[in-house]
């Protein structure tokens, strides 16, 4: 295995106050008091993270809390680093991230913020894909892509007025098709295809789940001569750092009701399609989604049949939409979907038999509406923490024959896309009928 770093992020202490810990350890503390202290601890933790990690560049992890502890491993040797609040670590040689289970009495809660490039073009204003790992979570890079694509700091400007722009060059999993025409203003390119005939440029166009921020132009259509020597090569199987990873998490539920499950929160630019690959499953999102591995005998529905499986990968969409593979199931805000996981095998970069993965033998379930309790919890959890995110609400309204459950989308852009997907017959009637269209 090539020389690389393993970042083990163990956020071991948010120094709340000594009196809080002493009080929490008192046997006479009621559950109500404990939950109130716990809520304050969670709020203080997130406030420190938000303050310390407000401006983190792409391809970087941020150290969020006072009193935390982290290690970097280089060829198996531990090197002290990444130990001060607001300190950042470039992810280029990263093997894995790991955070610790919430334990209020021990002042432990693992949270790490990672900003990734994913498929987002360099010229996209406010370009940022964010991973937030909560609790006992581990992510590991896929060994199939040991040499990741490093996007340039500055794109190459070019003119291709009137040229056809494509979603992808030929050879990608999705069919190559024209999505627009190059404007008279310059385009900004950040990668070149392996055959040297195509350039990826920043270009916004309407796609199925929202907007796509990149298109491809043929080099032969570029007017004049440009220098492409600074552009990295990117083909159908190439990924940026941590765009392709294996996820595993603990299954223990903390006593603190204010903490979310052990999970990873994935957020891209609002309304822009972001592509990631989790446990070999391609996932496209346009808002905020939660990912976690569920242990035990879970039941999922596949082709109208209930299938019992062991560990499963769950995606829970809080805002926007998710598509679990090109042309596959679309999961709207307020819904979840599941897929079986096989393994473990050694598929990641650390040469350990610890990676779970999806297979074609067990396809994704259909979208399943989240419960009112789940939506209420996450609405409260992210309120004031993640700007611009509106989690759907569930209401019980009067209907013919009795009460009807209605899911109300607060984001108008989501509502427009939702209506289009229903009118096109892409979303099933039972989902469309339960939303305030």
The amount of beta strand, in percent, is 35-45%
The level of helicity is: 10-25%
Can you tell me the residue ranges where pLDDT is under 50 for at least 5 consecutive residues? 1-22, 67-79
Mean pLDDT, as a whole number?
82
User: How far apart are the termini?
Assistant: 53 Å
Q: How many strands?
A: 31
Give the helix/strand layout.
Blueprint: E1 5-10, H1 18-24, H2 31-52, E2 60-62, E3 69-74, E4 77-80, E5 88-90, E6 96-99, E7 111-116, E8 129-134, E9 137-141, E10 156-158, E11 164-166, E12 178-181, E13 187-192, E14 198-206, E15 211-218, E16 244-249, E17 263-267, E18 274-278, E19 281-285, E20 288-294, E21 298-302, E22 305-309, E23 312-319, E24 321-323, E25 330-332, E26 335-340, E27 342-345, E28 355-357, E29 368-369, H3 372-382, E30 393-399, E31 402-408, H4 412-423, H5 429-432
Parallel strand pairs: 16-18
Antiparallel strand pairs: 1-3, 2-5, 2-7, 3-4, 6-9, 7-8, 8-17, 9-16, 10-13, 11-12, 13-14, 14-15, 17-20, 18-19, 19-24, 20-23, 21-22, 23-26, 24-25, 26-29, 27-28, 30-31
Verbal overview:
The protein has 437 residues and is mainly beta. The chain has 3 domains: 5-148 and 239-375, no CATH class; 156-221, SH3 type barrels (Roll); 392-432, no CATH class. It has 5 helices and 31 strands. The strands form 8 sheets. It has a 9-stranded antiparallel β-sheet, with no helix packed on it. Strands 6-9-16-18-19-24-25 form a 7-stranded mixed β-sheet, with no helix packed on it. Strands 10-13-14-15 form a 4-stranded antiparallel β-sheet, with no helix packed on it. A hairpin with a 2-residue loop joins β18 and β19. Residues 1-22 and 67-79 have low confidence and may be disordered.
